[in-house]
Please model this.
Amino acid sequence: MIGIIRSLGRWGLGVFERLGRGHLFLVQMLAGIPGLFLRFSLVIQQLFSVGVLSVLIIAVSGLFVGMVLSLQGYYVLVDFGAEESLGVMVSLSLVRELGPVVSALLFAGRAGSALTAEIGLMKSTEQLSGMEMMAVDPMRRIIAPRFLAGLISMPLLAAMFSAVGIIGAFLVGHGLLGVDDGAFWSQMQVKTDWYDDILNGVIKSIVFGFVVTWIALYEGYDSVPTSEGVGRATTRTVVHSAFAILGLDFVLTALMFGEN
Amino acid sequence: MPLIKIRDLHFYRGDRAIFDGVNIDIQRGKVTAIMGPSGTGKTTLLRLIGGQLHPDKGTIEVDGKNVHKMSHRELYELRKRMGMLFQSGALLTDLTVFENVAFPLREHTELPETMIRDLVLMKLQAVGLRCARDLMPSELSGGMARRVALARAVTLDPMMIMYDEPFTGQDPISMGTLVNLIHRMNEAMGLTSIVVSHDVAEATEIADYVYLLSAGKVIDKGSPVELKRSSSQWVQQFMQGLPDGPVPFHFPGVDFKEDLLTPEVQA
Model:
């Protein structure tokens, strides 16, 4: 019995210790950001590997999600003779929810895992240590540019996901199912609110970008410097990011749309 | 006055004492070898000197200043004057050989590109890899990677350089090249060198002074000649690489005969 309590206590302490380290890491990371404006080329390099290289998976997924959404939506709406509202349904689903959430999940799988593996390998091959000994702070030189790149990329990728999704939905809705294109676009324009829908979606994606990049970088930086340790850290990045995205999505949705 | 003064150093990992009251002086302009069996904390010692780890007790002074009482900024200023050669080389894998050597210059100076090029080529020429400047680290052999790392470590013309197991895993030619390079660099640049190693022959060849560490203590110290004449059995075992002696060949446990005669009873 004592053994169980002891191991429970050890586990709890471990969790809080990691949380504490994670937050200290965040503070150090944020402190490194102002200096980046003097060397923005570092961020631009990372914008390419974190953001641009994620475009393909985001665009393709967005297209298919939009197409499926259109098919599924049409079969429900047509029963009520409301198939002309397909555009609204698709745009609100994508802009409010699916855009930020699915693109963040994909971002965690594509860019988050790559960041963790990269930082973890840099740690295990002593590159981070080597930098410290060359008087170059890895938090400023390596971590902060990647964080800022993740933070900038995520809302743009989410917007791209939603836009491509809407195009996919239109192709299926209008091209395949014969929904009137004028009704599709005009209802979408009327019912999608700039502040309530689009801005809230953007805020969500910024929050997800912040959290996913933070988790990915911290897991890499805190990983056990062995091949197994880096592998575990990469898995943790994807799992923890998914939990954080879905949990935060509920909280943010409740805060943003709770009054309606 | 020694460049590095370590006094009463205690360092623990969990309950295990890595250093248990160690005193070491590293003299300016000399090559000092820190030797001992694997797992005696030789690399840990370098990390303590570089301020990457903090001692549990005791002080480490570099150039008269306590490394662990410095601010973050002061420590980073000090590190600009310290070079370190990691066992793995620790080259940045996404940069070419040239860019790796240029890295400290680009980070810490505002020098024009032509001057950076000249400086990098000079350092690469010194280690014999000027014409390998466009290779990526993954295309280098272990010995070449260490030579590039050596060129990078001296790019900012430091006052001292720490070598972490520079000879481990090298073929005889690479080993000879590295021994020669460390010796020459030390003389030509007036460096203070600390060589952490368990390769007795190579380390004693270039060292002016040797510290032998084991079980968290300094077991012996002196010039290589003095240590080879030491009356201590432990020192003789280590220096001559004898398989058995004060450091037993067998992992401690029950007597072999007794072990054979006792049937193992396990459920």
Summary: Chain A has one domain: 41-253.
